[in-house]
Design a protein that fits this description.
With about 190 residues, this protein is α/β, with parallel strands linked by helices. It is built from 5 helices and 6 strands, in the order βαβαββαββαα. α1 links the parallel β1 and β2. The chain is globular, with a radius of gyration of 16 Å.
C-alpha cells in the first residue's frame, strides 16, 4: 500500500491545457491503489505530447522508481511508469510483456465497452531505468457508454497490475513473467 509519505502532483498548468474537472483525479486513482512501488509520486497533466518524454526528464532529474505521469486528452488516457533497472538492459524486451499483461488485466477488472483500444505500449530506457507507457483510446466508445467509463478505476487497475507483475519479474526474472503469459495463451485482453 502507498504510505503516508506518498506525494501527488497535479500539474495541468504545465501542459497548457487543464485536465477536465470531471476527469482524471490523483485522489481517485490513489484510493484504488494497492501497489507497493508504483504510484508513490503521481503527476497529472492535461494534454501533453508524451508522458514518456516528461517522465524521462523526471528520471534524469532523479525521480523515484514507481513515479507515474498521467495525461488526458479529452476522453483518452496516457500514462507512463518509471522503473529503475540497475543496469539490467537485458530486461527491456520482457518489460513490453509486462505492459501488455497489465493493460489486459486492467481491461478485465474494469467494466468497459469492447470499443476501448490500447493505442500503444512503449518502453523507453537508459542504462539504469526504463519507462513503461500506454495510451488508451476511449473516444471511440458511443456517447451513452462513454459516460459510464471510470478512467480512474482503469488507471488504478493498470498500475496495480503493473506493480504486481514487476514484483514477479524482480523476484523470479523473465521466466516467471513469461510463464504466466504463456499459460494464458499469450493473450491478456478480454475476448
Amino acid at each position: 500500500m502507498i504510505g503516508a509519505t506518498a506525494m501527488a502532483y497535479a500539474a495541468p498548468e504545465l501542459s497548457g491545457l487543464p485536465a477536465s474537472p470531471d476527469g482524471l483525479s490523483i485522489e481517485l486513482i490513489r484510493r484504488r491503489l494497492a501497489s507497493a512501488l508504483v504510484g508513490g509520486h503521481i503527476y497529472l497533466f492535461g494534454r501533453i505530447a508524451s508522458t514518456t518524454e516528461v517522465l524521462a526528464r523526471l528520471a534524469e532529474a532523479g525521480a523515484r522508481e514507481g513515479t507515474v505521469v498521467v495525461a488526458e486528452d479529452g476522453m483518452d488516457l496516457r500514462l507512463s511508469v518509471l522503473f529503475r533497472l540497475a543496469g539490467a538492459l537485458g530486461a527491456v524486451p520482457v518489460l513490453s510483456v509486462l505492459t501488455g499483461r497489465a493493460a489486459g488485466e486492467a481491461l478485465r477488472q474494469t467494466p468497459l465497452p469492447a470499443a476501448v483500444r490500447i493505442e500503444c505500449a512503449t518502453v523507453a530506457h537508459r542504462t539504469d531505468w526504463a519507462i513503461l507507457g500506454i495510451g488508451v483510446n476511449f473516444s471511440a466508445i458511443p456517447g451513452g457508454a462513454l459516460q459510464r467509463i471510470d478512467r480512474n478505476a482503469f488507471a488504478a487497475a493498470y498500475l496495480n497490475a503493473l506493480d504486481r507483475l514487476f514484483a514477479t519479474y524482480a523476484a523470479g526474472g523473465a521466466s516467471a513473467v513469461l510463464a504466466g503469459w504463456r499459460d494464458n495463451g499469450g493473450l491478456d485482453a478480454r475476448e
